[in-house]
Inverse folding.
């Protein structure tokens, strides 16, 4: 009798612990089953998508953003990781370098950054992952290049202006509000000498006459700029001067070139502050993703064990759960 009572007590304790575990982590879903190979300074480490996503989204978007914006960002990060082929030679899916793949913060970094808000913020990011469990964007059955950027002013950029054109990375409206986006419009002044040195052209005549032509692209950003007879792309000027985007105007004022720059980032794909604005207006994450990645469909992981395997079989595994994203 005593043994039975002891056994029952153990069963109760086990059930209680299991319940606590699920309350904290949620039941194992598609993200728990998906293994990612992560390239770090210490080599390749494997993590589950469920563990990866909150730390990656934390590195890319303020945790206090609207939940629908966090969910859109989570789907974009999940999709990016599934589609990324940059590190196949290393036997990895993604790295932790924001300049290459997606930013990834450690728990220690986040505890330092958030202090007493750590648990609250992580709970939001875990919820954004759980509520979009396993969902990723596809085009023609393949995970898409779900690139994103901080902010645009008015319109996003067409991928063809910077890289190869992709049908779902085209210029769309983006509703950022200068009063709500920090640093949406910035100004930088450089001297004539700094400009000629940074871009490597030979100065000719008075600087007020150096800018011969500015050609905007379809999204209104600078496609090319002709300075003293030399042609530069907007991306070259941005990189040389460290401008926040290629959406800039340029004028000669008070002995210097004044650059007025709108937005932050390459401008292609989803704008994070645009997503935040749409979410605040009541748009849900599916509609936000449909807007920034037109023509794509939302699919769900269906039991693939690794991101690499999914890429190989992606046309078979794209179990489309919604076609409404093409609207
Ligand atoms: Zn990378």
């Amino acid at each position: 009798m005593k043994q039975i009572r002891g056994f029952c007590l153990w069963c109760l304790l086990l059930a209680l612990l299991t319940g606590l575990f699920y309350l904290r982590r949620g039941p194992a879903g598609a993200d728990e089953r998906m293994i990612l190979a992560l390239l770090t300074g210490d080599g390749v480490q494997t993590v589950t998508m469920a563990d990866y996503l909150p730390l990656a989204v934390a590195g890319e978007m303020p945790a206090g953003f609207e939940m629908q914006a966090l969910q859109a960002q989570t789907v974009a990060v999940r999709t990016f990781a599934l589609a990324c082929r940059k590190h196949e030679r290393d036997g990895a899916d993604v790295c932790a370098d924001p300049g290459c793949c997606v930013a990834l913060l450690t728990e220690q970094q986040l505890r330092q950054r958030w202090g007493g808000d750590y648990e609250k913020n992580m709970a939001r990011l875990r919820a954004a992952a759980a509520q979009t469990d396993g969902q990723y964007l596809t085009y023609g059955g393949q995970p898409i290049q779900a690139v994103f950027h901080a902010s645009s002013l008015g319109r996003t950029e067409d991928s063809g202006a910077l890289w190869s054109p992709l049908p779902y990375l085209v210029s769309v409206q983006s509703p950022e509000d200068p009063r709500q986006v920090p640093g949406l419009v910035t100004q930088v002044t450089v001297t004539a000498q700094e400009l000629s040195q940074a871009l490597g052209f030979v100065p000719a005549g008075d600087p007020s006459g150096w800018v011969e032509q500015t050609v905007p692209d379809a999204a209104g950003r600078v496609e090319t700029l002709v300075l003293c007879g030399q042609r530069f792309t907007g991306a070259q000027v941005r990189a040389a001067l460290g401008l926040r985007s290629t959406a800039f105007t340029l004028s000669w004022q008070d002995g210097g070139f004044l650059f007025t720059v709108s937005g932050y980032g390459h401008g292609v794909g989803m704008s994070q502050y645009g997503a935040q604005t749409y979410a605040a207006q009541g748009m849900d994450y599916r509609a936000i993703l449909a807007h920034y990645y037109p023509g794509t469909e939302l699919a769900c992981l269906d039991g693939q064990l690794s991101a690499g395997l999914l890429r190989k079989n992606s046309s078979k595994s794209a179990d489309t759960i919604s076609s409404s994203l093409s609207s």
